[in-house]
Amino acid sequence: MITFLLNQQEHVVENIDPNTTVLDYLREHLQKTGSKEGCASGDCGACTVVIGHAGNVGIEYSAINACITLLGSLHGKQLITIEDLKDGECLHPVQQAMVDCHGSQCGFCTPGFVMSMFAYRKNNEQADRQSIIEALGGNLCRCTGYRPIVDAAVQMFEPPLRDQFDQTELAVLASLNAINEADGAVKLTGNSKHFFSPSTVKELADLLLEYPEARLVAGGTDLSLEITQFLRSFDCLIYIGRIEEMKTVVQMDDELDIGAAASYGSTKDALVALYPDLHELIDRLGSKQIRNQGTIGGNVGNASPIGDMPPVLIALGAKLVLRKGDVSRVIGIENYFVSYKKTSLETSEFIERIIVPKPQADSVFRVYKISKRLEDDISSSCGAFNINIVAGKVKKATIAFGGMAEIPKRASHCEQALIGKNWTDVTIAEAMDAMDKDFTPISDFRSSATYRLSSSRNLLRRLYLDYEQGEKSDREPSSNLLRVTQYA
Ligand SMILES: Cc1cc2nc3c(=O)[nH]c(=O)nc-3n(C[C@H](O)[C@H](O)[C@H](O)COP(=O)(O)OP(=O)(O)OC[C@H]3O[C@@H](n4cnc5c(N)ncnc54)[C@H](O)[C@@H]3O)c2cc1C
Ligand code: FES
Ligand code: FES
Questions:
Q1: In the 8-state DSSP scheme, what is residue 366?
Q2: Which domains are seen in the chain, by residue range?
Q3: What pLDDT, on a 0 to 100 scale, did the predictor assign at position 473?
């Protein structure tokens, strides 16, 4: 049984197949058909709903894709859908702005846009066009055009907001706290399948010993696609999003210690403070909805060769804390990836934490993502460079790529061609040639093999030019991710 607030009302669910998504539950079980299904893969945003969490200073609102969110993950949260925005006969200011600015034609995308705008309005006091565009990056419209929608998102800030959600916030907070503080295991069972939602690492470790075949769900932004796109049905799922210990981001003397269940949204600031170049990469990782749910632990756990964080973490020399039962071990992240989607994780073992070293003196870190679309697109390749340059010579170089091999992989020949050499364009040209020995990429719908190799070679040149430009102008070189984006 799980309990959540459906808008303001306590809602209990039991005896339902735990592979059910929030969207299917809304549309097929509750006949709430305002949230639409466009893609069922987190790409179009038509299904966007808003989740309210009990935060430190009230309710925190996040837009998420209902099509790839599993119902069981709603326990202890508030679910707000498009049906809940109107207050009696009065449209919500977000809806009114969409009407006033002619932000809707066929209307299929409109509920999703409105919900993304609603979350943005609740989280911001002022309109900022750039951050509005970022907040709407996960919503697609095929007919209205984006200009009137962005205009509406600016206009919705004109009336000061005091809506029904402000008026009931304290009561909602009290209800959420009561649900979250109630004793007892949280478990959803139906159709002989189980969804467990432990609240401690110990509980998780014990559950994995008892159910070694169980699949972990963090944000579910990869795993749910196995259900919605490949029509798989899991017998046992264990959700880790309620384990607060696994959501912490802790500053140590020399390292940043990130819980495997921490979302991109909650990790970004700490990572960017250490490595400013990660700003653009994380902003381009999926959409706002995906970053609200998705985790770095899931990105590593998924072991996809085209995940964006693995090459970054390899270049930074990150370590993983793996745990099985009461026993933990620490491995270099590079050793985690064995072959295509195969990892060194043992049965019943899981990633508990990710340890990221802080930058060393004289180190330069850059990451470049190449994708067809700027927002919400998977990389065709992603190169991360961590280089120490002392007195014009390369002292250390750790370079890793995603999208260039069956696993995220170091460019070892390229590194060797740099280490101990003068940092000059001649060295860079030799290191670019050496990269040919590191990778034999494949051709697929994202890129041809030739494009992958030549663009990756050129990322090293890009890094060199960026660095030189930064040296000459006496400032940090910019990463210019936008300039290396390939528009198809
Ligand atoms: C529309 C869309 C856009 C996307 N864009 C990008 C992108 O630009 N770049 C990118 O890299 N990815 C992208 N992704 C993929 C996905 O969002 C990321 O990989 C994300 O980090 C996955 O995290 P999650 O918490 O949702 O993982 P989940 O889906 O919960 O889990 C992923 C896998 O890891 C396993 N797992 C989860 N946690 C652990 C753990 N603690 N220990 C061991 N195994 C674990 C799960 O069992 C599962 O097999 C996109 C996905 C979608 C749907
Ligand atoms: S239906 Fe397209 S993102 Fe959910
Ligand atoms: S209004 Fe038709 S898809 Fe946006």
A1: E
A2: 2-83+166-239 (3.10.20.30), 93-162 (1.10.150.120), 244-357 (3.30.465.10), 363-484 (3.30.390.50)
A3: 53
